[in-house]
Design a protein that fits this description.
The complex is a heterodimer of chains A (about 300) and B (about 230).
Chain A lengths: L1 H17 L1 H38 L2 E5 L5 H12 L4 E7 L1 H11 L4 H10 L7 E6 L5 H10 L6 E4 L1 H46 L2 H9 L4 H41 L5 H7 L1 H26 L4
Antiparallel strand pairs in A: 1-3, 1-4, 2-3
Chain B lengths: L1 E11 L6 E12 L4 E5 L6 H8 L7 E6 L2 E2 L5 H9 L1 E4 L11 H11 L4 H15 L14 H13 L5 E5 L7 H16 L3 E6 L2 H7 L2 E6 L2 E6 L7
Parallel strand pairs in B: 3-8, 3-9, 6-7, 7-8
Antiparallel strand pairs in B: 1-2, 1-4, 4-5, 9-10
Helix pairs in contact in B: 3-4, 3-5, 4-5, 5-6
Classes of the chains: A alpha+beta (about 300), B alpha/beta (about 230).
Chain lengths: ~300, ~230
């Protein structure tokens, strides 16, 4: 048993380096496929960073009437915080709104002057609300309309921003849909290419496999070396792809960052280091083994 | 040793519904330590017959017995045991292209689980027998046709099979190499192994003076001890 295992392993290694060109071609194809899968994963991560950044920029403000007591507003705040769709509620008092305005427009003397003309603080206290998803602001509005403090509200600026929020929502969901669809199609194409490459590689050995059967070799004695070859192809492909991914992420990081300031692709790579490695090892080994075994099996039926 | 009983082999044809009858109700015996030549023109059914003996294919009707064991009823796992008792030589050699001469020959012993020492000892003996000691570490593509066929014969006899099947072993060789190969087969026979030789080489058969079975269009038309090639 141990002797057979040793012989099978040795034969697998020998086949691998004696058919060097064939092994290299197979590795090349598998590398392309794993790289593609990795890139899909990375782009997916980049897109979710972008989407969450855009969604973060969307919010709604609830302005309360001038004479509403701070306690009432804070009570409204705590009620809003309890809604599951709400991610964050921030209270902005009259004074804070005033200070923020002055700070923002300090270089614009006309605005500051006109504020002086008014002679009092014209701003309303408000609550800034962020929902978990862009699609969920309508839920918050529904809650407000039926709430006990609806009378205290001067205005909700959601209605003005509704078109923007809706647009963000539809763009992000269509990006997700397209991404998933493209991943599936590319994945299928990639797997078919690998299957075909390996099928052709094994086809060149079909007579050899038949002869092995005729001289009395068992199926495992014949399949074993191909299995070892498949594992070697998987391991080499994984190593190469991993290095390439590392280099690409490292090299492109400043360039991508210059275009989209929120995205640090090298950070995404290091943050997902183990996930990426796992994806690549799984893809590499299974692309090396499964098509090989299917292709060899076909010629064993003598 | 082998008993071929009323064997018929029909291949279905893709063209229309015409079937091809490769073997038509054939019966004969191969005895222990016998040299049997199966002769006939191309397409007479020689190769089909060898394929049936090797259980590579099944007869349409009839039975083939190996020492009272019906090959058709033998389990797939036991077919391997049967094949390990047979040595086979092909017209096109069928060597393993990515293995050296030494590895081609040792493969059969590895399959059977021989130890490394046994393999080293037997392979060097057989290499000497077929005169290929110097070629041990060459690949098949680096050998001449005659050398390739001698490697194939070495591979066929390395595990001391009870019977050697040779399918047109001289078909691709010149007369000098053919003579060498025949001498090797006779030597193997003289060492006590049954040899079944399929050929259409008239002179080869006539010079042998051994048992000859003549096939023509799938029918057995003559069976003679000390026969000649007459068609």
């Amino acid at each position: 048993m141990l002797t057979s295992f040793k012989r099978i392993t040795r034969a697998g290694f020998k086949n691998f380096y004696r058919n060097g060109l064939l092994s290299a071609t197979t590795i090349f194809i598998v590398v392309i496929v794993i790289f593609l899968v990795t890139m899909l994963f990375l782009f997916n991560s980049v897109f979710s960073v972008l989407i969450s950044n855009i969604q973060d920029k969307v919010d709604m403000s609830i302005y309360f009437k001038e004479n509403v007591a701070t306690e009432n507003i804070l009570e409204a705040k705590s009620q809003l915080t309890e809604i599951p769709e709400v991610k964050e509620v921030k209270y902005i008092s009259k004074e804070e709104a005033f200070t923020a305005f002055v700070e923002k427009h300090k270089d614009d003397p006309i605005l500051i002057e006109s504020l002086d003309e008014v002679g009092r603080n014209p701003f309303l206290p408000s609550l800034g609300v962020k929902a978990q998803q862009a699609s969920e602001y309508q839920e918050v509005v529904n809650f407000l309309e039926s709430s006990s403090f609806n009378d205290l509200i001067e205005k909700v600026d959601y209605y003005e921003r509704k078109p923007v929020i809706d647009k963000v929502f539809s763009i992000t969901s269509s990006i997700n849909r397209t991404g998933a669809f493209a991943s599936i199609i590319l994945g299928i194409i990639a797997i078919l290419i690998v299957f075909n490459t390996i099928r052709i590689a094994i086809y060149s050995s079909n007579k050899e496999i038949s002869t092995m059967k005729l001289v009395g070799a068992s199926n495992w004695f014949i399949q074993g070396p191909f299995l070892i070859q498949g594992i070697l192809v998987g391991i080499f492909s994984t190593i190469i792809t991993f290095l390439v991914t590392f280099a690409v992420c490292y090299g492109l990081d400043p360039k991508i960052n210059a275009i989209v300031s929120d995205v640090r692709i090298f950070n995404i790579f290091t943050y997902n280091f183990w996930t990426i490695l796992l994806i690549q090892i799984t893809a590499g080994i299974s692309l090396g083994i499964i098509p090989t075994m299917i292709a060899v099996r076909k010629y064993l039926k003598i | 040793m082998f008993y071929i009983q009323n064997v018929t082999k029909i291949y279905p044809s893709r063209a229309k519904n015409e079937n091809i009858v490769a073997l038509d109700d054939i019966s004969f015996k191969i005895n222990d330590k016998e040299f049997v030549s199966i002769v006939g023109k191309s397409g007479a059914g020689k190769t089909t017959l060898l394929k049936l003996i090797l259980a590579e294919e099944q007869p349409t009707t009839g039975n083939i017995f190996f020492k009272d064991q019906d090959i058709q009823k033998t389990k797939k796992s036991k077919i391997l045991d049967l094949r390990r008792k047979i040595g086979i030589v092909f017209q096109d050699y069928k060597l393993f292209p990515s293995k050296t001469v030494y590895e081609n020959i040792s493969y059969v012993m590895e399959v059977m689980g021989a130890t490394d020492d046994e393999i080293a000892r037997d392979v060097s003996q057989v290499l000497e027998l077929v005169g290929l000691t110097k070629r041990a570490h060459n690949f098949p593509e680096e050998l001449s046709g005659g050398e390739q066929q001698r490697t194939a014969i070495a591979r066929a006899v390395i595990h001391r099979p009870e019977i050697v099947l040779a399918d047109e072993p001289t078909g691709n060789l010149d007369p000098y190499n053919s003579f060498d190969i025949m001498q090797l087969l006779i030597k193997i026979y003289e060492l006590g192994t049954t040899v079944v030789l399929a050929t259409h080489d008239k002179e080869l058969i006539n010079s042998l003076g051994k048992k000859v079975i003549t096939l023509d269009q799938g029918k057995l038309i003559k069976e003679e001890e000390r026969g000649r090639f007459i068609l």
